[in-house]
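Bench log. Compound arrived from synthesis this morning; before running ITC I wanted a structural hypothesis for how magnesium ion sits in the protein. Inputs:
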Amino acid sequence: MGYQIPRGTQDILPGTVEKWQYVENKAREICSRYNYKEIRTPIFEHTELFLRSVGDTTDIVQKEMYTFTDRGDRSLTLRPEGTASTVRSYVENKLFGLPQQPTKLYYIGPMFRYERPQAGRYRQFVQFGIEAMGSDDPSIDAEVMALAMDVYKELGLKQLRLVLNTLGDKESRKAHRDALVAHFEPRIGEFCHDCQNRLQTNPLRILDCKKDRDHELMKTAPSIHDYLNDESRNYFETVKSTLTDMGIDFVIDPTLVRGLDYYNHTAFEIMSDAEGFGAITTLSGGGRYNGLAEEIGGPATPGIGFAMSLERLLLALDAEGVTLPIEDELDCYLVAMGEAAKEKAPSLLYQFRKAGLKADKDYMDKKIKAQFKAADRTNAKFVAVLGEDELANGVISVKEMETGNQTEVKLEEVTQYILNQI
Ligand code: ATP
Ligand code: MG
């Protein structure tokens, strides 16, 4: 039977990979418009970083990390998300000291979580995310959400919902936390094992529980909105009014909490309302994490970001029936007839390619008919046919596939001729 790919991973083959490249290019293009620069960090980090930053009460840390000991007896973990590494790098490289602030970064790369695989949930998946560090201006919260929405919208998605909430600042969260404990404690026995643990460690996350989401106490749970201090309330109002001014639609969901420990103030998710998208409707999530840089040994630094997986983005494109305008055809396929023409072909093809043409030829010693078929398969715009007679006369015949027009061109002019046509 041979070897099989590990569960929850994918091979992305030619024919599909073009979609990935298209989407990645779009993300990069939008980042450059918003002045976010790429950062590339290692695929693995010291395990301690994730315990510290993601938080040891989260699903990621408790159940999902790929952790291993290397030959030097260090505990390392394949990164489950991108924020921790980005903030680690920001602190380690003292990016906060650069004159240009805030520091606006983006990343695209594989993340690893030991999860039960299903549509939209993999063990290796690619996240595109951004982080803006150093500013607590509410307009950057709006910018981060706008950028995420732009990626989806510009790719052609329409059935999108931006869901917004605030988690308040430390003080508001503390008051809310106490209220949550008081609310759930008397009947915590009716909740799942995880929620029972969460009651003391992180009661906010009870609201995020997938098993107990229909319990009656969930609907009556105290809302963070009743515990916001003035500063947190004002912050939230400004974020909302900025989005409104920008013409970006959103809905408020007071029960939206994020899985990770380090969030405060703004929290948001972008959902797909497309029919057939499946059980998982969240396309991306993000929020503000003031305090994270300090938590991992840096200066107190406000920060905000989001992450989306490209897997879910591509699923949403399928669900909405969006076809990406991918151009993958060759400019020219070179057909050679006869020994002398075959000998001439490699250098002629090389000349095409050096001039910037996307070009190819046969390498399977195919008959003429089969060479034309191969040319068809590559969707070549032009087929250049080099036969014995043409070669002897120093010419080549060039056929435009769309019109069927065929022209004889001097060999030394053929490259320029095709360049002029495309
Ligand atoms: P979920 O509730 O779906 O488990 P999460 O809270 O774990 O999501 P985040 O940690 O916020 O997700 O990650 C941000 C984004 O990364 C998600 O919105 C989703 O697009 C994507 N994502 C997370 N886990 C996976 C996975 N296992 N496979 C594919 N994409 C994922
Ligand atoms: Mg998850």
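What the model suggests: Residues 81, 113, 115, 120-122, 125, 127, 259, 280, 282-285, 307-309, 311-312 surround adenosine-5'-triphosphate (ligand 1) (CB under 6 Å). The mean pLDDT is 95.
ITC booked for Thursday regardless.
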